[in-house]
Design goal:
heterodimer, A: 537 residues, alpha+beta, Alpha-Beta Plaits, five-stranded antiparallel β-sheet, five-stranded mixed β-sheet, 41% helix, B: 445 residues, alpha/beta, Rossmann fold, 4 domains, eight-stranded mixed β-sheet
Chain lengths: 537, 445
């Protein structure tokens, strides 16, 4: 953030924007020159550095740019007193002696006082003069500069420029992908208020403060400026703000920035998607869960869920087909906290949540708090077993529900060959439910082979083709499979078995596996001989 | 049933009833009212016979207070008027007329948790001292790196502003010392975000050049009592004289001055710019951002001003005065720190600027009061408020054209002591732009 006098903006109509410096060769060399000036002054007084810097202000560049850069670099400086003596102590002594003699109005009188003071302090008169005000900032010695590249200095400058403009902001509207938790935590910490709504599948959040309600108010400008870097840490962001630049004009200007257009100008450490874990506990949990093949996908920080006027940002989302279950890992907690959570959950439909709480911080044993919230306890690491059980439980519940539902509807299938996954997708249910229902129901004209349903006429067609080929030559498994898939079939080996073909393996190469038709199946039309015979319906 | 809560600088009313000044806040689903209207909301609810629970005020419990302060007659009448109008309002008295004591008496009488808001760290220390001396209790401090809350607390304006959301419901009485700072756009929110029904403003200089003092009646209450320096000089304040000493720049300074100043005036002439008032000047400053020549002109003007304000001739004049006034306690005022340190090193006078550590500042002021130091040289930091009981000579080596600054600097030497005759000596470089600056500061006299 910079002094407001150094702010450079461009206005047109009702818009305002900070004037960013391009990261081109020219500006980079200016930044380089500035950094060089600092490092050249190691061991010299701040005063000399300042003189050199003000010399640079008149090189033809906007002095506000040059001064802005040096203000930022000042913050990276390590200054040190040039002496180990205590100047304050020396001054006190000199003033004491002066009080006895009266203020010196001649050089001689002054020298007398200094001489006496110096000898009483056991130092030379030169040392005394040199040390007298050596603790003033201008007299301090530049010891070191935290390393910075010209490129990152320019980006930092652009960011500071933006933040300085935000001092004049009355509200901010942003949308981001990811990073929600950090942002909302900071909003709360800064004492700001948010309003969230959905627009084009994205959440937009407006941030201002309690007293913004009464009148346009730049009180929260500083806080909004502090919030900005956190927003910029997201993968994608866009920010809109209202700026009240000159109070007397009373005109609100619009500032709009987004990561695609402006991200490259601004210094920000984007948190990579994979590294957004707040704690080792979370990271460890995600790692262990992803090693298992559960069929569930795990998403870190799935985004905000508006709940009434508030927002919940759970740590994780487990997702399988239509099932969504959230997980929040809580360090410190109180029963009140959980009660609030339940109350919030009560306000939204179809939200399931597991809350993992630290066993050692448990204030009170709470086992089950309503159907929508499952509490599990952890010690050092979040256990997988109760979570997997809960996910399984939820999945079974859903499968059963769906079986009941599927029993009430007829299905019609158009395709001649289809697998259960595709059927499930078409019906919007879980595959397991389809598998279950197919065990109890026969689809007219279709045969079920493992995970696929195939039309009887299709099977007959396949059989005919294979038979006619076999009459002409020998077939190996690879060739047979090719014929089956060309005809539109899937899962060749089970089709072959169903149609009465025999596979004689010699080795593991399908090209050397010989196909023959069992004697009793020859020239017979296809007949259903699968487990469908057992079905009740 | 309505529940009244304090929420970060405002009041939230849970319940179905709106009140005067209430705004429906859809973000939280409740009526929200500026904290300043706390007494109005309560009296509205009382008069309308609406049941409510007040959870907004959270003042710290305070023991029974008593102090030894004896008020002078004009101080008593000021306090009486202030009480008569309901414990709100601004009292305007010259520096050294004992405004602090009026406030102390009010604190004693009200006996409620009180916040005193002050502009500088020196005043912070001074009020802490007064409060703990008078009431014999620990005093809370916000500012200068401290954050301690007590039933009697002193805060800087900056801290009171930053901490408003947290401190706003902890006090029933606020004293705004040097209240002319309050109507600034940001600081006025201190008044708005605190619930304190009792409010007292103190100042010697009520008017602001930007006219924002017109907002004071809303923020603190109207001007309830006012006396000028001349109403009190002689009787309650020390009698004083004012001298203006004209000095000539050294020939070399004169030459440099002419050269630089001409760059400035030429630019103005060429571009037909007239700088008659602040607004003109502000516009000119803005121009320097776009026009490098304007900036060059401005830099030349600043350089010319520096030559004048830091002139060797002034040091010489001061030197002569120092050899005349060898017993009196002296304050030397300058506009820039650079000159402060030059004088401090030249005459070995203790210096106070914004760079001076709090510890050293305190040490210097204490020794000055105790008579162990006889002079202090300072830039603008001592303009306000600090008690320097018996300084009798003030030198203005340089300053701005603000009449407030002048009145305040004068105030620093006016505290009454038997037989004291105060002298304010202005040392001005003749035939330079400083003569006009000096004229401007006497405009309101």
């Amino acid at each position: 953030m910079l002094p407001s006098g150094l702010l450079i903006t461009r206005r047109w109509r009702d818009r305002i924007k900070p004037v960013y410096v391009e990261l081109n060769q020219e500006n980079l060399s200016v930044a380089h020159l500035l950094i060089q000036t600092y490092t050249d002054h190691f061991g010299k007084r701040k005063f000399e550095l300042n003189e050199a810097l003000s010399g640079l202000e008149d090189l033809g560049y906007d002095y506000r740019f040059i001064r802005g850069l040096s203000i930022l670099l000042d913050r990276k400086c390590l200054l040190e007193s040039k002496t180990t003596l205590d100047p304050f102590k020396i001054r006190k002594h000199v003033f004491k002696i002066t009080h006895k003699h009266g203020f010196p109005t001649t050089p001689k009188a002054r020298r007398n006082i200094l001489h006496r003071s110096a000898s009483e302090l056991g130092i030379t008169i030169e040392t005394l003069e040199n040390t007298f005000y050596s603790d003033l900032e201008n007299e301090l010695i530049l010891k070191d500069l935290e390393p910075i590249t010209p490129e990152s200095l320019l980006r930092w400058y652009n960011l500071s420029l933006t933040q300085t403009l935000f001092f004049y902001s009355t509200e901010l509207i942003f949308t981001v992908t990811g990073n929600w938790q950090r942002i909302f935590r900071q909003i709360k910490w800064l004492g700001l208020i948010y309003t969230i709504w959905k627009r084009d599948e994205r959440y937009e959040v407006k941030v201002d403060g309690p007293t913004s309600l009464f009148k346009l108010n730049r009180r929260y400008g500083t806080s909004l400026a502090k919030l900005l870097p956190t927003i910029l840490q997201s993968q994608d962001w866009s920010v809109k703000a209202k700026i009240l630049r000159r109070r007397r004009e009373g005109r609100l200007l619009n500032l709009e920035l987004d990561s695609h257009k402006h991200g490259r100008y601004l210094e920000s450490v984007v948190i990579p998607k994979e590294e957004v874990y707040d704690s080792l506990i979370e990271q460890d949990f995600a790692k262990r869960f992803n090693l298992l093949d559960t069929g569930w996908t795990l998403t870190r920080e799935p985004g905000p869920i508006p709940v009434g006027r508030h927002v919940m940002i759970p740590d994780f989302l487990f997702k399988k087909d239509s099932l969504k279950i959230y997980l929040e890992i809580v360090g410190f907690w109180t029963p009140q906290y959980l009660q609030n959570k339940i109350k919030k959950l009560g306000l939204v439909d179809s939200i399931d949540m597991i809350v993992a709480v630290d066993k050692n911080l448990a204030c009170q044993k709470l086992e089950r708090l309503g159907a929508k919230l499952r509490i599990i306890y952890y010690h050092r690491k979040v256990p997988l077993k109760p979570i997997l059980l809960y996910l399984q439980e939820k999945e079974n519940l859903l499968v059963n529900e769906q079986i009941m539902f599927l029993r009430t509807i007829p299905f019609s299938i158009q395709k001649s060959v289809i697998d259960t996954k595709e059927i499930a997708d078409q019906l919007g249910v879980l595959e397991d439910a389809v598998k279950e229902i197919l065990k109890e129901r026969q689809i007219f004209g279709y045969v079920r082979l493992g995970n696929i349903l195939i039309r009887q006429s299709k099977l007959t067609e396949i059989k005919k083709r294979l038979e006619s080929q076999l009459e002409e030559r020998e077939l190996n498994l690879a060739e047979a499979s090719q014929i089956i898939t060309d005809t539109g079939g899937l899962n060749s080996t089970s089709i072959l078995a169903t149609l009465g073909f025999k596979i004689e393996w010699s080795g593991i190469d399908p090209r050397s596996a010989k196909i023959t038709l069992k004697e009793k199946w020859k020239k017979k039309p296809f007949q259903c001989n699968t487990d469908l015979k057992k079905t009740k319906i | 049933m309505i529940v009244l809560r304090y929420d970060k600088g405002s009041l939230l009313l849970r319940g179905e009833t709106g009140t005067p000044y209430g705004h429906w806040d859809p973000r939280v689903g409740a009526f929200r009212v500026m904290a300043i209207y706390y007494p109005d909301v309560l009296s509205f609810l009382d008069r309308s016979r609406i049941f409510y629970r007040d959870e907004a005020a959270d003042p710290l419990p305070i023991p029974s207070l008593s102090c030894q302060v004896e008020l002078r007659s004009y101080q008593t009448s000021a306090l009486d008027v202030w009480f008569d109008v309901g414990g709100r309002g601004v009292i305007v008295l010259p520096t050294a007329a004992g405004k602090t004591f009026i406030a102390l008496k009010a604190i004693e009488k009200l006996n409620v948790a009180t916040l005193v808001v002050v502009p500088t760290l020196d005043l912070l220390d001074q009020w802490r001292q007064h409060l703990s001396d008078q009431f014999g209790m620990d005093v809370g401090i916000f500012g200068g790196g401290e954050n301690v809350l007590k039933p009697l607390t002193v805060s800087t304006y900056a801290s009171a502003y930053i901490q408003a959301a947290y401190l706003g419901n902890k006090f029933m009485f606020i004293v705004f010392d040097e209240v002319h700072h309050l109507p600034a756009p940001s600081y006025s929110q201190i008044a708005e975000m605190y619930i304190a029904p009792y409010r007292m403003g103190l100042t010697a200089t009520y008017e602001r050049e930007d006219g924002l003092h017109l907002d004071l009646p809303r923020l603190v209450g109207g001007r309830v009592y006012q006396l000028e320096v001349d109403d009190l000089a002689g009787k309650h304040l020390s009698p004083y004289t004012h001298e203006k000493i004209l000095v000539k720049l050294t020939p070399r300074e004169q030459m440099e001055y002419q050269r630089e100043y001409r760059v400035f005036t030429r630019y103005l002439k060429k571009n037909r710019i007239l700088l008659k008032n602040r607004e003109d000047f502000r516009r000119f400053i803005m121009r320097t951002g776009r026009d490098p020549k304007a900036r060059k002109a401005l830099l030349a003007r600043n350089k010319a001003l520096k030559i004048v304000l830091n002139s060797e001739a002034k040091i010489k004049a001061l030197s002569e005065f120092l050899s005349i006034y060898t017993k009196e306690k002296i304050l030397v005022f300058t506009r820039f720190n650079q000159l402060v340190y030059r004088i401090s090193q030249h005459f070995l006078i203790p210096a106070i600027t914004y760079q001076t550590s709090r510890e050293e500042r305190k040490e210097i002021l204490e020794k000055f009061k105790a008579g162990q130091y006889r002079a202090i040289v300072t830039s603008q930091v001592l303009d306000e408020g600090i008690d320097v009981p018996d300084a009798s000579i003030g030198f203005i080596l340089s300053g701005t054209g603000s009449s407030r600054e002048y009145i305040q600097r004068l105030g620093r030497i006016l505290r009454k002591r038997p037989g004291k005759h105060a002298k304010l000596i202005e040392i001005v470089a003749q035939e330079t732009l400083e003569t006009r600056i000096s004229q401007r500061r006497h405009r309101l006299e």
